[in-house]
Amino acid sequence: NAGVTQTPKFRILKIGQSMTLQCTQDMNHNYMYWYRQDPGMGLKLIYYSVGAGITDKGEVPNGYNVSRSTTEDFPLRLELAAPSQTSVYFCASRSLAGAIETQYFGPGTRLLVL
Amino acid sequence: DQQVKQNSPSLSVQEGRISILNCDYTNSMFDYFLWYKKYPAEGPTFLISISSIKDKNEDGRFTVFLNKSAKHLSLHIVPSQPGDSAVYFCAANAGNMLTFGGGTRLMVKP
Fold it and tell me: Which CA distances in Å does B103 have to A51, B5, B52, B100?
């Protein structure tokens, strides 16, 4: 019963480095989301996808890219890491027919950019 | 411009008493409201929700109240238990996208 899994759990990046945050769900959900949570702040939507091959920007997309080649995977790419991207990143998924309450979150990836 | 605000960053309550967490919003297009609970090193988990056409929803010890005219909702936990200690986020839905408040850290003391 894996649900939504994210890797890595924690990563330290140097300014200008790139990395990919991985997200996989095994519930055959159509919707997938990437959020970031800064200290004392709520979750802000970075990108989302309504199905394989379809992605769209959320509230804070600058500095990130996503792809959705399969239903299961929704990786988030940081090309040139900046200190402002230090945050905790959460991936979530939801079925097309499911109510909004059925949005399940992964455990998060803590990213530190120095 | 925060569309969903939780003005109390933290709340401390004695075990057995009532916990009241508050949330204000500005966007009239929000049609559904949710509360999430988050423990450290875990993702948020859904707790309770309410549609904009209702003013109250109850689930066991948890009750959510919605005042549309005031654009305000609150979560009541009665009685509070030490296991309720967590960060609580309110979230509002519009067009299948959620907007989150900043969270309130609830500490329930034994």
Answer: 30, 8, 21, 8
pLDDT score at A114: 95
pLDDT digits (tens, 9 = 90+) for B79-100: 999 999 999 999 999 887 889 9
How far CA B96 is from CA of A58, A87, A99, B52, in Å, comes to 12, 24, 9, 14
Inter-chain residue contact A105 with B43, CB threshold 8 Å: yes
Residue B22: which of B109, B103, B97, B78 has the closest Cα? B103
Asked if A82 and A63 touch (Cβ cutoff 8 Å), the reply is yes
Contacts of A47 in chain B (CB under 8 A): none
**pLDDT, tens digit (0-9, with 9 covering 90-100), for A19-31:** 999 999 999 999 9
Q: Is the pLDDT of residue B43 over 90?
A: yes
| Mutation target among B21, B97, B99, B104 for the A interface, most CBs of A within 10 A | B97
Residues in contact with A108: Cβ distance below 8 Å, sequence separation at least 6, in sequence order: A6, A9, A37, A88, A89, A90, B41, B42, B43
